[in-house]
């Protein structure tokens, strides 16, 4: 006599969830849920306190430490070129180029640009793969200061939280100051002063419109899109940034024409001629953000330069890491719409033109010594 297995009806009756079975399953599910809550709470509590950044410049960053470790693993000496400069020494057209390249709604969002996130998700859905990122300037700063470059949901979640803390704690101008002084601009190069000297042999305040556009264009891949290599992508992005600055009246038509001519000379071949985007291609939010910046700029008197004054080296106005923020860092920036009317503008005598050191940064600002710029890794 052959034995037969349970029928389908009998099986369903056996697995029928009674109230007692539900309670048992609930207890089993509650344990991992509680563990997850505890783990998330511990991770949240362990996130760094951003309040010291109000008055102190960071001595190092997570990205700098990561790059140093990578250098040691590759058998070379870890180096770091960086010189702090106050925001009012960064030309307005350079600030505009960075914002238009990386975060055009910087003065409108609270750390995360949900409009950009939505656009990036829609684009990824249509393409069937992850494409461009949607990180704001504040998120990039949080990642540079405290996190790693790995791509994971946990790192992204921490980035969102830290970006919110930075926005809640620091004024926009301070966030922008920190960003331009710690962001990576090539192998072993951090901050705009070191970048200006390494890539163009000039101080930050002497950057031309074209040079500022190139530095802004480098940011998505600062160790691959190097000006010395003249990559086509850098030329195209720089030209687009110049066109957008002209489109939004960050620079005059004459400045834009001069910048295009300089880009043509730098990269060789015909001039960079790219059409500005049509008006209906620019989002209303982006228009509003840039209009808000323009209104702030109209209210702020231009910085005065003392004619014929002898220039001082950039190190004179730089700040040693972990030191108090200099007073002139509080001078108004035309891009700081939230704090433009709070402090008087500082009169800044243009620093003296001086030949850059062999490595592009004066020895006093680079105690560790440097090599020539090279690198082929994106951030």
For the structure shown, list the relevant keywords:
single chain, mainly alpha, 379 residues
Which class do the helix and strand fractions yield? mainly alpha
H/I helix tally: 14
SSE topology string: HHHHHHHHHHHHHH
Task: Give average pLDDT, whole number.
Answer: 73
Low-confidence stretches: 271-283, 296-379
Distance between the termini: 72 Å
Helix content: 40-55%
Compute the CA-based radius of gyration: 26 Å
How many beta strands in the DSSP annotation?
Answer: 0
Q: In one word, what is the shape? A: elongated
Strand content: under 5%
Characterize the largest beta sheet: strand count, sense, and whether it forms a barrel: none
List the helices and strands and how they pair.
Elements (H helix, E strand, L loop, with lengths): L7 H7 L4 H27 L16 H12 L18 H11 L11 H14 L9 H10 L6 H17 L2 H11 L9 H9 L8 H10 L13 H16 L5 H15 L16 H16 L14 H4 L62
Q: How does this structure look, described?
A:
39% of the residues are buried. The chain has 379 residues and is mostly helical. It is elongated and about 85 Å long. The chain has helices at 8-14, 19-45, 62-73, 92-102, 114-127, 137-146, 153-169, 172-182, 192-200, 209-218, 232-247, 253-267, 284-299, 314-317. Mean pLDDT is 73; it is low at 271-283 and 296-379.
